[in-house]
Write a structure and sequence with these properties.
Layout (H helix, E strand, L loop, with lengths): L7 E3 L5 E3 L26 H7 L8 H10 L12 H15 L3
Antiparallel strand pairs: 1-2
Length: 99
């Protein structure tokens, strides 16, 4: 196997443009693409500071309201008895992790 490293450009229309050395003969090749960090992703100090700020804490009522609004209640998962469901999950876990 002969390995040759060349640089190329991926165009907006999805084409790979590069120039091969003259010594490369026709035949099958394997292409590996390594991408440098795109120039368009540059964070300013202000943007980083904003992203690193902790979220505003929520009250228990706000958390429950959001979960219910997103359909995250037991009933949505077909669970009618939460205690029985927990016991069943524990039993399954013991079976998976037993010798």
């Amino acid at each position: 196997m002969i390995a040759v490293e060349v640089e190329g450009v991926i165009t907006a229309d999805g084409k790979l443009e590069l120039e091969l050395p003259e010594a490369i003969t026709p035949g099958k090749v394997r292409v590996r693409i390594e991408r440098d960090t795109p120039d368009e992703i540059v964070w300013t100090d202000e943007e980083l500071a904003e992203l690193l700020q902790p979220a505003e804490p929520k009250t228990g009522a706000e958390i429950v309201a959001r979960i219910l609004a997103e359909g995250g209640g037991w009933e949505d998962k077909g669970i009618t008895d939460s205690e029985a469901w927990v016991q069943e999950q524990r039993r399954k876990r013991r079976e998976r992790h037993s010798w």
